[in-house]
Design a protein that fits this description.
Blueprint (H helix, E strand, L loop, with lengths): L10 E4 L3 E9 L2 E6 L5 E5 L4 E2 L3 E3 L2 E7 L3
Parallel strand pairs: 1-7
Antiparallel strand pairs: 1-2, 2-3, 3-4, 5-7, 6-7
Length: about 70
């Protein structure tokens, strides 16, 4: 993850969970809240390939795919 990776308040569009709000980022892990189901998930950011963020509704949204 780069220094300009996801921060609380950003969003990640996860390949399995869909659109998620970034709640906490700490030690290479992030707690995500699924927008639709409101489920809380914890993921390793190193296990995701994050693309360049787009801005949607004033928030950065990072596309997340499986690493190859």
């Amino acid at each position: 993850m780069s220094a300009d990776g996801p921060r609380p308040g950003d969003r990640i569009r996860h390949f399995a969970f869909g659109l998620c709000d970034v709640m906490i980022v700490r030690e290479g892990r992030a707690k995500l809240l699924e927008v639709e189901s409101r489920r809380l998930r914890e993921v390793s950011l190193g296990a995701l390939r994050l693309g360049a963020p787009a801005v949607e509704d004033g928030r950065r949204v990072f596309p997340a795919t499986r690493p190859e």
